[in-house]
Write a structure and sequence with these properties.
Blueprint: E1 3-7, E2 11-15, H1 21-28, E3 46-51, H2 61-67, E4 77-79, E5 91-96, H3 98-107
Parallel strand pairs: 1-5
Antiparallel strand pairs: 1-2, 3-4, 3-5
Bound molecules: FE2/S2 (inorganic) cluster (FES).
Protein backbone atom coordinates (compact mmCIF):
# COMPACT_ATOMS: atom_id res chain seq x y z
CA UNK A 1 0.00 0.00 0.00
CA UNK A 2 0.98 3.62 -0.20
CA UNK A 3 -0.28 7.03 0.76
CA UNK A 4 -1.37 9.46 -1.95
CA UNK A 5 -0.23 13.05 -1.69
CA UNK A 6 -2.13 15.55 -3.81
CA UNK A 7 -0.47 18.89 -4.47
CA UNK A 8 -3.15 21.38 -5.47
CA UNK A 9 -2.57 22.36 -9.09
CA UNK A 10 0.37 20.00 -9.63
CA UNK A 11 -1.02 16.46 -9.52
CA UNK A 12 -0.53 13.61 -7.08
CA UNK A 13 2.00 10.97 -6.14
CA UNK A 14 1.87 7.73 -4.12
CA UNK A 15 4.60 7.48 -1.48
CA UNK A 16 5.73 5.08 1.24
CA UNK A 17 5.67 5.92 4.97
CA UNK A 18 8.72 7.93 6.00
CA UNK A 19 8.55 10.18 2.94
CA UNK A 20 8.41 13.91 3.71
CA UNK A 21 6.04 16.26 1.91
CA UNK A 22 9.09 18.03 0.47
CA UNK A 23 10.49 14.77 -0.91
CA UNK A 24 7.09 13.98 -2.42
CA UNK A 25 6.92 17.43 -4.06
CA UNK A 26 10.38 16.96 -5.50
CA UNK A 27 9.56 13.50 -6.88
CA UNK A 28 6.43 14.92 -8.48
CA UNK A 29 8.15 18.04 -9.82
CA UNK A 30 5.91 20.37 -7.78
CA UNK A 31 7.56 23.75 -7.02
CA UNK A 32 8.14 23.74 -3.26
CA UNK A 33 11.02 25.83 -1.91
CA UNK A 34 13.80 24.38 0.26
CA UNK A 35 16.35 27.11 0.87
CA UNK A 36 18.00 25.39 3.86
CA UNK A 37 18.11 22.01 2.16
CA UNK A 38 15.46 20.47 4.42
CA UNK A 39 17.05 20.89 7.85
CA UNK A 40 14.30 22.94 9.54
CA UNK A 41 16.07 26.29 9.35
CA UNK A 42 14.24 28.48 6.84
CA UNK A 43 10.42 28.10 6.44
CA UNK A 44 10.58 28.26 2.63
CA UNK A 45 9.04 24.75 2.46
CA UNK A 46 5.87 26.09 4.16
CA UNK A 47 2.69 24.34 2.94
CA UNK A 48 -0.95 24.08 3.98
CA UNK A 49 -2.16 20.55 4.64
CA UNK A 50 -5.82 20.98 3.79
CA UNK A 51 -6.81 17.38 4.48
CA UNK A 52 -5.32 14.13 5.73
CA UNK A 53 -3.02 15.89 8.19
CA UNK A 54 -3.52 13.10 10.74
CA UNK A 55 -1.58 10.76 8.41
CA UNK A 56 1.56 12.83 9.04
CA UNK A 57 4.04 12.86 11.91
CA UNK A 58 3.12 15.36 14.61
CA UNK A 59 4.71 18.77 14.71
CA UNK A 60 7.73 19.06 16.98
CA UNK A 61 8.92 22.20 18.81
CA UNK A 62 11.64 22.95 16.26
CA UNK A 63 9.15 23.00 13.40
CA UNK A 64 6.76 25.15 15.44
CA UNK A 65 9.53 27.67 16.18
CA UNK A 66 10.46 28.00 12.50
CA UNK A 67 6.81 28.30 11.45
CA UNK A 68 6.52 31.28 13.82
CA UNK A 69 8.71 33.17 11.35
CA UNK A 70 6.77 32.13 8.24
CA UNK A 71 4.29 34.30 6.31
CA UNK A 72 0.49 33.81 6.39
CA UNK A 73 0.60 30.96 8.92
CA UNK A 74 -2.68 29.08 9.30
CA UNK A 75 -3.96 26.22 11.44
CA UNK A 76 -3.07 23.87 8.56
CA UNK A 77 0.52 25.12 8.18
CA UNK A 78 3.40 22.64 8.16
CA UNK A 79 6.99 22.61 7.03
CA UNK A 80 7.26 20.23 4.09
CA UNK A 81 10.70 18.99 5.07
CA UNK A 82 9.61 18.13 8.62
CA UNK A 83 6.21 16.52 8.04
CA UNK A 84 6.55 12.91 7.03
CA UNK A 85 3.96 10.34 6.11
CA UNK A 86 3.43 8.19 9.17
CA UNK A 87 0.37 6.12 8.31
CA UNK A 88 0.00 3.97 5.23
CA UNK A 89 -3.04 4.44 3.00
CA UNK A 90 -5.31 7.43 2.50
CA UNK A 91 -4.95 10.78 0.82
CA UNK A 92 -3.19 13.93 1.99
CA UNK A 93 -4.04 17.19 0.27
CA UNK A 94 -1.42 19.90 0.22
CA UNK A 95 -1.31 23.47 -1.02
CA UNK A 96 2.08 25.07 -1.56
CA UNK A 97 2.18 28.55 0.00
CA UNK A 98 3.04 31.65 -1.98
CA UNK A 99 6.10 32.04 0.25
CA UNK A 100 7.28 28.63 -0.84
CA UNK A 101 6.54 29.20 -4.55
CA UNK A 102 8.54 32.44 -4.42
CA UNK A 103 11.44 30.68 -2.73
CA UNK A 104 11.38 27.95 -5.37
CA UNK A 105 11.50 30.53 -8.15
CA UNK A 106 14.38 32.32 -6.45
CA UNK A 107 16.27 29.05 -6.23
CA UNK A 108 15.46 28.23 -9.87
CA UNK A 109 15.77 31.49 -11.82
CA UNK A 110 14.78 29.71 -15.04
CA UNK A 111 11.26 29.38 -13.57
CA UNK A 112 10.99 32.96 -12.28
CA UNK A 113 7.39 34.22 -12.41
CA UNK A 114 6.09 30.88 -13.69
CA UNK A 115 4.24 29.70 -10.57
CA UNK A 116 3.63 32.89 -8.61
CA UNK A 117 1.93 34.45 -11.66
CA UNK A 118 -0.88 31.88 -11.57
S1 LIG B 1 13.52 23.38 3.68
FE1 LIG B 1 14.15 24.82 5.17
S2 LIG B 1 12.75 24.46 6.82
FE2 LIG B 1 12.16 23.02 5.31
Amino acid sequence: MATTIRFKGYGEIAVAPGTSLLQAAQSLGAPEGYACGGVCACSTCHVYVTSGGSLLTEMEDEENDILDKAFDVRATSRLGCQSKVEKDGGVIEVEITRESLEAFENEHPEHRGKFTAR
